[in-house]
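Memo to structure team: turn this sequence into structure tokens by end of day. - J.P.
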Amino acid sequence: MQENVPFEKEKMPGINRIIMVASGKGGVGKSTVAAGIALSLANEGYSVGLMDADLYGPSLPTLFNIGQQHPETIEMDGKTRLLPFIRFGIKVMTIGFFVRPETAMLWRGPMVSKTLKQLLGDTVWGDLDFLIIDTPPGTGDIHLTLLQQYEVSGAVIVTTPQKIALSDVQKAISMFQGPHFPVPVYGIVENMAWFSPTLHPEEKYFLFGQGGGDILSQTFHVPLLARIPMNETICRSCDEGKLNELFSDPEVKNGFDQLLSQILTQTEKTV
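Reply from structure team:
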């Protein structure tokens, strides 16, 4: 029987840390959290890239209002390279630059992996302190390609409070903590933790229940990094591509400030 040969992981030149944002489940606001992390880092003066690895359903074109953009190209070392779109100080790359939003991506695993590696490797990221990778739901080909091929610094797991989300989210944690491609799990973000109307910020409505983040934290022995609330203003700013307004709500900004502080602490521990 042939022995298992370890994968040789690539260190992306010029990129200090790669952080994967994952959930295992769709609809938990993972892309918003990933974009919020990138924006928080950029606002603190870090050089940041944001890669949309959800090839089947990219959300970053909407969040950044760049759906009609087409990246410029340059020739480097005899090869055509892509220049990321820069918005709010973040270098953004997404498959949404190349396909219409109504187009279904009917790709099998090998094509998905090849396209992902091309987008990641052919983009001129320059020198980055952080590259945040927004991954799709599940634990499939895209996650395996990233974990097998690249040196990933850590992962942030996004969930919502309700227990029905936990069974899927815990699979994502197990993937990172498993023996095949172990990656530090920095912790859990409980997104949509409660709803507070903009005009009545003192009111809290726990629409999706309470305690999901705590359960995951205790079960897998990883920190609960932050709880991020929601309101109608957040939804509108995301839908209209006005990500810079994400932190206009004090409670939301407080949640992302706490998340940023925890991520920076975790990255220092894993250097």
